[in-house]
Amino acid sequence: MCKTFAIVLSLLAAPALAHDFTAEIARFNEIAATRDPTSEGAVNARIASERAQAELEQAETRLLLRVRSLTNQALREAGAQPAFLASEVRRLEEALAGNPEAAARLAPLLAEIRVTKAAYDALDRSSSERMREALSLIEAAPARR
User: Fold this and answer.
1) What are the CA-CA distances from residue 80 to residues 76, 102, 111, 140 (Å)?
2) How many structural domains does the chain have?
3) What span, in angstroms and rounded, lies between the C-alpha atoms of 43 and 102?
């Protein structure tokens, strides 16, 4: 429980890495207000928008939390100060570069961090693509009558 609380606090203290959809959502809603909400295009656009937002939320809540937790665990075990910056993985690699024993011991953890971070980055890119798709679909939907 305390570990989870500490992780949540560290997330709140650090800037989010994920794409912010605020502008896209506002634009989507503005366009959607002028479209026939029952049209196939508008329904598909709403689904694409919801998927994009859900995908990003999933990445933020699960994978980013996992990357931060693993990185901070490895930094502590390497004798370094846990990170509160977006450059955590780079800092970990730098900390391990000067300590071959720790680098060998923490190699599996660093590999897991890299894989999890890659999955997070892929979901972030995918959700951004889905939001662009949603905007294209809503722009192409028929106007209200």
Assistant:
1) 5, 11, 18, 53
2) 1
3) 53
Q: Kindly state whether residue 7 falls inside one of the protein's structural domains.
A: no
Q: How far apart are CA 94 and CA 106, in angstroms?
A: 13
CA 34, 40, 41 angle in degrees (round to 5)?
Answer: 55
Residue 17 in 3-state DSSP? coil
The DSSP string of 92-128 is: HHHHHHT-HHHHHHHHHHHHHHHHHHHHHHHHHHHHH
Structure tokens at 70: 């693993």
Other residues' Cβ atoms within 10 Å of the Cβ of residue 128? 17
Residue 5 lies in a domain: no
Q: Average pLDDT of 2-11?
A: 38
Range of the domain at 111: 22-140
Helix (H) or strand (E) holding 72: helix 65-77
The structure's pTM equals 0.49
The string of pLDDT tens digits covering residues 62-101 is: 887 888 888 888 888 888 877 654 577 888 888 899 899 9
Can you tell me the distance from the alpha carbon of 44 to that of 50, in angstroms, rounded to the nearest whole number?
10
